[in-house]
Amino acid sequence: MKKAPATPDLSELSHLMEPLDEKNKPIEALLKELKDVKYALDQSSIIAITDQKGRIFYVNDQFCKISKYSREELIGQDHRILNSGYHSGEFFKQMWATIGSGEIWRGEVRNRAKDGSFYWVDTTIVPFLNDQGKPYQYVSIRNDISLRKKMEEEMRRSEEKYRLITENSADLISIIDKEGNFQYISPSHVTILGHDMSELKSNPLFKWIHEEDQKILYTELRLLAKKKKMSSQIEFRIRTSRNQYKDMETRISPIMNEDRKVKDFVLIMRDITDRKKSEKMIYHLAYHDTLTDLPNRRLFMKHLRQEIKKAKSSSSQLAVMFIDLDRFKFVNDSWGHENGDFILTKAAERIKKSLRSTDLVARLGGDEFTVLLKGISNVEELERLVKRIHLDFQKPLEIAGQLYTPSCSIGIAIFPQDGAEADELLSKADTALYFVKERGRNGYAFFEAKMEEKSLERILLENELRKAIQLEQFHIDYQPKIDLSKNKLIGMEALVRWNHPELGKISPNKFIPLAEETGLILPLGEWVLRRGCEQNKEWQDKGYTPLKISINLSARQISYPDIVRKIEEILIETKLEPEWLELEVTESIFVNIENAITVLQQLRDLGVHISIDDFGTGYSSFSYIKHLPVDTLKIDASFIRDIHQNKESQAIVQAVLTLSQTLGINVIAEGVENQRQLDVLREDGCSQGQGFLFSKPLSSQDFEEYLKESVRATGIKEID
């Protein structure tokens, strides 16, 4: 079983949070800050994560400590295991109605521990929403407030005892009258806010509260005074002596006089500034691209769906641009990925600068950008924006001592004429972009229906691909995986190759995407799985030490309804034990994460190992990985390529290694090409590697020779 995560993944933030501008902070600082936040949360808060039905699949040590249940006793249960019977059914019904609608729920809950004792927790439940806006899991963040609840009870019983407790409490406790004038202030106000006690008492509470939040407090006090509420919990910002603001979570209770009329109010304020900053940071990292700080695909699609809904109700138009940098692969290959990243950041700046303030630009990944343009009145307006982007791109950049002028291709689709839904609109813009690139790039095009007609070349290649699958023109090369500490062979990755009898070798980068698009990846993937398992079993039968074979599984295959049954059949037919098969999936599975979790868990239940390929290319990985049933993270080669030269790449690799150690997940670095890279990886604690430093991909015959050499190197008796 995978070791439980040490920290939660947080979602929506309150609008009361101060803006946290991380735009220009270096990646290294962001990573350190994120690491510190995770550690702080795990040390101070009680964390649990449930699926959409409320079943627990992660708890931290603080949760186990306060509930007195072990992690094994909690996993798979729902929170009814902790039900104290104190709250009514209506209480939980309202809670589920709130989080089920995608809203954050906050409240205080009394739970029963395993030994029968009761404890109170201040609870925040954050729903995580899929691309359709539906919750697929919930993160609960709790803090033990048993002492505070006990204190409140004591307050009712004895004013003297109340005063003693409040004066030694870390919470800010006060009594105010209906006008907000202080009747009592606990010493913690001075400690936390920095104001003199006399200064605080001589001014009403409203003076210290942020002007945007004053109405919130005023409204709540009025409702309590009219007895329309028995108590209230709100959040507002309060000013310190340094003219900064702290976020406060405040419980307000009325105090009655002898005539049962509201006389004063008791306020218990808790400083939640650090929690707000943590939520803000993690939310930002989960929904933004780390290189450019632009929104990522998830956030872009969320906004696009919202704007389409508005446009439908108002009968207005909007447009989507799909922007691709021309010949960007050549730039990466010629000047390296560090310069490539520099070009991407400049491209992001130029696109954003060319647009209106109401437009939204996002980076989907690689050199692909998308733009959402609201309130479009005519095509001419769009053309002006497109030409402005192209004009800005004509300004040269200095790279490696040379001037380079970037260019881009742009495809445009308009709502509602080109598509009525978000996915359809983006697909049409992509089709228009492909049309521009076929015409020579550095231009733009509006989507037209005729663009969807396939080119002759693609038709021919698709036909040849179908024939190749029938005739089994493919073969598999095997690239070794190495234990870095022992310099020992531990497995191999199966890589499909196509050597056409007339066209020669066809790059996987060319035929794999075509196979994905046409659905031919299903029979091709099945062939690779069967042949790879057969070959691995054959080597085992010859007496070689059993090794794990890694085989890629595409997002299209994962979404295939019978994929688990098919893999089980192949294992049975080839007689390969499931423990010697590892399936590598890419981050594209995050698009439909609910289905991915189900399929991956079923595969792990068979005994098959699961690996995430190209890991680390987006913070979405950090956000999602703790919820996926995986055994191995494969660090993307782009970070290994310059790890011995680039501190940012090394920092990201170190963050992945730290995350994996926390979660109990194995890590392997791909693309290890030289000794300096290997030295840094070993120093950082990476235990496994793969790349040309150890071996290029080998044919089955050459890999068997490699196996024999490995046997000789370990001193084991050579196999006949």
- Total DSSP helices: 26
Largest sheet: 8 strands, mixed, barrel
Low-confidence stretches: 1-22, 715-720
How many β-strand stretches?
26
Task: Please list the strands of the largest sheet in the order they lie side by side.
Answer: 18-19-21-22-23-24-25-26
Q: What portion of the residues fall into strands of 2 or more residues?
A: 15-25%
CA radius of gyration = 30 Å
Structural class: alpha+beta
N-C termini distance:
38 Å
Query: Roughly how much helix do the residues carry, as a percent range?
Result: 40-55%
Broad shape = globular
Mean pLDDT over the full residue set: 84
What would the keywords be for this entry?
720 residues; alpha+beta; 8-stranded mixed barrel; 5-stranded antiparallel sheet; globular; 26 helices
Structure description:
With 720 residues, this protein is an alpha+beta fold. It has 26 helices and 26 strands. The protein has an eight-stranded mixed β-barrel with strand order 18-19-21-22-23-24-25-26, surrounded by four helices. It has a five-stranded antiparallel β-sheet with strand order 2-1-5-4-3, with helices on both faces. A five-stranded antiparallel β-sheet has the order 7-6-10-9-8, with helices on both faces. Helix 13 packs across helix 14 and helix 20 packs parallel to helix 21. The protein is globular, with a radius of gyration of 30 Å. It holds the Pfam family PAS_9. This is Diguanylate cyclase/phosphodiesterase. Keywords: Coiled coil.
